[in-house]
Amino acid sequence: MAAGCAACHATTDRGDGPLRALAGMPRAQVAQAMRAFKSGERPGTVMPQLAKGYTDREIDLIAEAIASRDVAR
Amino acid sequence: MNGRRAFIRNAALALAAASTGCASVAVRRPLAKVVVVGGGYGGASAARYLKLWGGDTVDVTLVEARAAFVSCPLSNLVLGGSRTMAQITVGYERLAQRGVRVVNDNATAVDIERRQVRLARGAALPYDRLVLSPGVDFDFDRIEGMGSDAARARYLHAWKAGPQTAALRRQLEAMHDGGVFAISIPRAPFRCPPGPYERACQVAWYFKRAKPRSKVLILDGNEDVQSKKALFMRAWSDDYAGIVEYRPDYVLTGIDPTTSTARFETADDEHADVLNVIPPNGAGDIARQAGVITVNDRWCEVDFRSFESIRVPGVHVLGDAIQIAPAMPKSGHMANQHGKAAAGAILAALAGRDYEPPTLNNTCYSFINDREAVHVASVHRYETSQRTYAAVPGSGGLSSAKSVVEGDYGLAWARSIWADMLG
């Protein structure tokens, strides 16, 4: 599931410019960011629109995979 | 993790072999062979992730006729003159370094019975699973006058990034100030719904600076703008007033090369100095040859749980070639997502594991000029009861207006997704 994020967000430590690299970002931080985008609390361009498409369970799965570097390159 | 799993399995097999006194007999199962045809957004992503997740358990071969990947996204900026071909070209070397066998050859046929892909130059490639990501090919027969090589070299589609992109740019550069560039858009569905309208913006941006008396004529075979309508209409009226003219319901039926005039189903003839003809799109030719085209003699239906053809078992089809799910665009980003979903499903099937289709996303940037862009985004979840993907209600959306910030995001998106698929 989290591989879907890797299209835009590097899953290695080499991030690219304004799109934040996600490699090893702590689980709570990913989940919190996604929930803040989803609720509208955190502004943005694309992310608020995408976050609204993921369930809480999916957000937790994504956060877990990113934190554990399961999608690592 | 896969490496460790494979090690444990092999160690167990070795132990079993040793205990029966057969230690000299090969203990490894033959590697599962997956052949991927087409090294674009779908195929390269599938190959990359098959190897990333499958590790030593799978032998992955990517067949691609071209020596390097050239991106369709951003290729309209080459037409506008703000980017070069080199900036949208990426080699396959890193993918090869990561364990994918990259074969630079043309896949000419699929032998379904023998499970082999035939190549133009090399020996046939056997497969256990085949992934076809052939992109689109064109139905020139629908347009009278487009039968000859000469006509096709003159009225370019530039709808596959590469030599035609560079050639169309040269035609624009050679056109006199005060000339007309016309783009003919086929009836939907076609590859990249916002692409033709972005192209009109890019050519207009070039004309505005270099040939201000020139015109961009959008001759749309559809009744309306197919994507990001309000954002494009605003650009044409605010940024490119007097340059861009949009006309719906222009279904191209023929071209007269002696007068460079285009003919249409119902609308009047139109003359153009540079005529960009995007013919009706359909799945790439190898899909036809493999027998996986099932809809309107044009698109390939797949089981969205695995992207396996509904017609031919063991053959998976990705990207622009498929009969797309409702509200799912034919985009490079979407093909990248197909590639990963298929890679996961194939590896699960080879290992006898269950697989849950992942939720997929799409993000697509269109450039209004050299720096400012707009986006459309969506999320797609597999709906078991409907046996297809559906857009998640309440998700997705568009930019409120063009911006430099989104232009920067658009360029970063390209760099990121190229790294994601090509290593």
Which oligomeric form is depicted?
Answer: heterodimer
Largest interface: A-B, 24 and 38 residues
Helix content range of the residues of chain A, please?
A: 40-55%
Total number of strands of chain B: 25
Radius of gyration of chain B: 23 Å
Describe this structure in words.
- The complex is a heterodimer of chains A (73) and B (423).
- Helices cover 41% and strands 0% of the residues of chain A.
- Chain A contains 3 helices and no strands.
- In chain A, helix 1 runs antiparallel to helix 3.
- Chain B has 11 helices and 25 strands.
- Chain B has helices spanning 2-19, 41-54, 75-80, 93-97, 149-154, 163-174, 195-210, 229-238, 285-290, 332-351, 404-422, and strands at 32-37, 58-64, 68-70, 89-91, 101-104, 107-111, 116-119, 125-126, 129-132, 136-138, 180-185, 215-220, 244-247, 252-256, 261-264, 270-271, 274-277, 281-283, 302-303, 308-309, 315-317, 360-367, 373-383, 388-391, 397-398.
- The longest helix of chain B is centred in the C-terminal third of the chain and has 20 residues, at 332-351.
- The chains are: A mainly alpha (73), B alpha/beta (423).
- The A-B interface holds A 1, 3-10, 16-19, 45-46, 49-54, 58, 70, 73 and B 1, 49, 52, 333, 336-337, 340, 344, 358-361, 363, 375, 377-381, 392, 394-397, 399, 405-406, 408-409, 411-413, 415-417, 419-420, 423.
Search tags:
heterodimer; A: 73 residues; mainly alpha; 3 helices; 41% helix; B: 423 residues; alpha/beta; 5-stranded parallel sheet; 4-stranded parallel sheet; 25 strands; disordered N terminus
